[in-house]
Fold this sequence. Notes:
Blueprint: H1 2-12, E1 32-34, E2 51-54, E3 64-67, E4 73-77, E5 86-90, E6 98-99, H2 105-111, E7 117-122, H3 136-150, E8 162-167, H4 169-180, E9 201-205, H5 218-225, H6 231-236, E10 250-255, H7 264-275, E11 280-285, H8 305-315
Amino acid sequence: MKWQKILTAGLLAATLSVAGVAGAAPLQDGESIQMWLGSAPGSEDVSFHNKITERSQDPAQHDRMMTDIDVPELIAHVPAQPNGTALIVGPGGGYARVVMDKESDEVADWLNPQGVTVFILRYRLPSNEHKNRLDVSLEDGQRAMRIVRAHAKDWNIDPERIGIMGFSAGGHMASSVCTNYDRKVYEPVDDIDQVSARPNFSILGYPVISMLPQYAHTGTKKRLLGLNPSKTDEQKYSSELHVTAQTPPAFIFCAADDDVVPPINSIRYFRALRKQGVEAELHIFRHGGHGFGLGHKLTSSTRDWTHDCEGWLRDLGLIQ
């Protein structure tokens, strides 16, 4: 698994700073990329710092999560032969945590052999007391897109082939970037913030999309909007209501028996995309529940979703 390589790289290599785009060093596999110059916007005065908790009782099988994130980061997974396509991945966790082993390194193990450069985004959580907590995940998603695009030449990436992927609540972060890539949610901190944050494509796994009462995942909504949100906020943070003709194409997948995030979230986003003439593909598998990812929870129904997604990526010219 990639986590071993990342741990070694983290011990041996200094964290890459995003300061100064010109002449950036070549990207190293397992490299941790500092996303902000100093403190992240709105997190200057928080009293917590990235906490890692191991949930597995099996020393050979990690199941870590990160909470209390004040310093978001990008972890790079560099293929042996980059093909120019890059993907930023937001793991799930219901906006209470960001899982570190599921829905993250597995994506790199899948797509690196296809030539795709993968960046795992450990984004800040609205459940923490940041000054602008409702938008911190969107801020980090926008900034991640800008960093990768700004460094595209140095990192063997085509700036027009950078996508974003999200699972569950990470899907809400990712779809928010897709529909709000040009919304100003923080003050520019350097030249990188002049670069477009629009993804060129998106992959959404059993995503949280809507904050409307009849569709929302209760836990994610509560952690984002609180117990008594206004109708204005429910609409503002419902991605399906902000789709335009410029929203990136999407590959969306979920299971019909998902009893955590209702599949109607995926359906509503797909319908909104098609209404605007945006290319989209939706797969609703017969059974698989929630959080099947690429791991041991795959069923006979869901095990082929990566194959289907590869076909979609080929159609878009993103892999061979």
